[in-house]
Amino acid sequence: MKLKLSLSIFVSLLITLPSLAQETGKKELPVVSKYTIDNCINRFNPDKTEKTAVGYQYWFIDQNFLADGQTVKLSVVGPNQATHPPHKHAGDEIFFILEGKAQFYLNGQTTTGGPNTTFYCPEFSEHGISNVSNQTLKYLVIRKYPKTAK
Fold first, then answer.
1. CATH number at residue 137
2. I need a labelling partner for 10 at 20 to 30 A (CA). Which of 17, 139, 146, 150 fits?
3. Which of 145, 134, 119, 127 is nearest to 59 (CA)?
4. How many other CB atoms sit within 10 Å of the CB of residue 77?
5. Residues 98 and 131 sit within 8 Å (Cβ to Cβ)
6. Does residue 87 sit within a domain?
7. Domain span including residue 113
């Protein structure tokens, strides 16, 4: 129960998702029919996980759900492995450790952290995360992907 409460508070305070409706000059906001209680709740479903080379991932909010590309993904990494080497990219990225022990890499420096630890990676910083234990590492990845031209 503590983990669920901590995660709820973390996501609520750290991530301010964009407004789903714009002010219309009235005191009320218009109803946005694209978003419903049914599609705004995503309960973990093991049948919808995506296998990776070192574990699996599960998209709670994928790039296509919100117009601005905000995402929340669960990553699960096997013992003493990493999903990929340190890298850089546009857009900030935040990791929230749920279970296990992670090594964080940021611009040449490393440290470790366990459950209920966040790791903020500023845009274009070289960063990485890896599992440094004999147990499974589970963490959330919170990132806004830049829009691409279609």
1. 2.60.120.10
2. 146
3. 145
4. 23
5. no
6. yes
7. 48-150
